Amino acid sequence: TIGPSTNSEISLQKLFDVGMNTIRLNFSHGDHEEQGARIDWARNLSKKLNKPISVMLDTRGPEIRVGKMRDGEQNIVGKSTVVIYTSQDEYLNKLCGPSELTTSYDMSQDLKIGDKILVDDGKLQLEVVEVKPGIVITKAFNNHKIKSNKRINLPGIDFSLPFLSNKDIDD
Predict the structure, then answer these.
(1) What's the rounded Cα separation, in Å, for the pair 138 and 125?
(2) CA distance 56 to 38
């Protein structure tokens, strides 16, 4: 990955000299102008050395986020019931209390009983126990202090959220 410590044409040359043949650009960070300069460096180096250098674009992909909470955080207790509200209106307007979450995506349309939900990089693990339109009722596997805006992952779920966002397509 080309980042702060490798963000120059000279750094790319050094990496190429020790075996690099692909640069990875993380499009979650940096704008098109910055990423374009990195691609130009790789192309110039490729021409100069008469050797191919691949460019891999790592786009952000779909994101599901936890909404707002009173005081910005709450403690989820293992084995407790956690109710997840999935409407866009609740995500934008509801301040969640104890054992409540909102999400930026209506995952109630894609989940079924027994599915797993990972929150905050898997630090909070939930299991779906009931699904209603706009509401997912879960049981917490573990204790965790959750904060607003943390990511949600739905492992193994074929969800209906578009895989490529408009930003990904622009990238």
Answers:
(1) 10
(2) 11
DSSP 116-131: EEEETTTTEEEEEEEE
HSE-up of 100 (CA within 13 Å, CB side)?
A: 16
CB 137 within 8 A of CB 83: yes
How far is residue 94's CA from residue 4's CA, in Å, rounded to a whole number? 38
* Dihedrals phi, psi of 82, to nearest 5 degrees: -125, 120
Q: What is the pLDDT of residues 14-44, one digit of tens each?
A: 999 999 999 998 877 778 888 888 999 999 9
Pairing of strands 151-153, 64-65: antiparallel
pLDDT tens-digit series, residues 48-64: 999 999 999 887 767 89
First to last CA, the chain: 16
The strands making up 64-65's β-sheet, listed across from edge to edge, are 64-65, 151-153, 116-119, 124-132, 135-140, 81-85, 100-102
Classify each residue of 67-76 as buried b or exposed e, where b means 16 or more C-beta atoms within 10 Å of its C-beta: bebeeeebeb
Q: Is 121:151 a contact under the CB 8 Å cutoff?
A: yes
- In this prediction, residue 161 has a pLDDT band, given cuts at 50, 70 and 90, of confident
Q: What is the dihedral of CA 137, 116, 74, 99, to 10 degrees?
A: 10
